[in-house]
């Protein structure tokens, strides 16, 4: 998000990603959800900065895969 050079967007994204994680932890009651690793966002930020929507879509899907699998696994247990 910093690549956008938009402080409001960066702050909103930071708040949003933390809020989503906390909501999932509360809803699913599991403290084993994957931690947010900001370095994992590098490919997505690079794709956005380069203006490549296809690369950005691939990077976004890859970024969400680990938390998606964790949520699916937790839901399957309940």
Question: Helix- and strand-based class?
Answer: mainly alpha
Q: Helical percent range?
A: over 70%
Query: How big is the Rg?
Result: 14 Å
Low-confidence stretches: none
Protein name: GntR C-terminal domain-containing protein
Domain GntR C-terminal: 2-65
InterPro entries: GntR_C, TF_FadR/GntR_C
Pfam families: FCD
Structure write-up:
The protein is mainly alpha-helical and 78 residues long. Helix content is 72%, strand content 0%. The chain is built from 3 helices and no strands. The protein has helices at 7-28, 42-50, 53-77. The chain is globular. The relative contact order is 0.14.
State the main characteristics.
3 helices; globular; mainly alpha; 78 residues; single chain
Short summary of the structure?
This protein is mainly α and 78 residues long. The chain has three helices and no strands.
Write the layout of secondary structure elements.
Blueprint: H1 7-28, H2 42-50, H3 53-77
Helix pairs in contact: 2-3
InterPro entries: GntR_C, TF_FadR/GntR_C
Protein name: GntR C-terminal domain-containing protein
Domain GntR C-terminal: 2-65
């Amino acid at each position: 998000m910093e690549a956008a050079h938009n402080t409001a967007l960066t702050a909103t994204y930071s708040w949003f990603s933390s809020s989503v994680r906390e909501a999932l932890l509360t809803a699913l009651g599991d403290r084993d959800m994957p931690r947010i690793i900001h370095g994992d966002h590098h490919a997505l930020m690079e794709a956005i900065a380069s203006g490549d929507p296809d690369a950005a879509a691939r990077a976004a899907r890859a970024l969400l895969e680990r938390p998606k699998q964790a949520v699916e696994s937790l839901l399957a247990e309940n």
